[in-house]
Amino acid sequence: MDIRSPLPGVFYRRPAPELDPFVGVGSPVGPDTTVAIVEVMKQFFEVKAGTTGTIAGVAVADAEMVDAGQVLFTVRPG
Fold this sequence. Notes:
This protein has about 80 residues and is mainly β.
């Protein structure tokens, strides 16, 4: 299962530069787990996992531009 960006913008793995990432490889997630933030025109949108499982891979670097539908994370179901 992939978690994809809901819209184009800047991808952030953490809520603030000095804080830890929302999730990393091995992190358990549920449908409502916030996994990232995408910034669009100074507005910040939380990206939810939308599934239950474990983060198996991170496909995008922090502060990288992403397109709508681009894979951000892979999730091992469970």
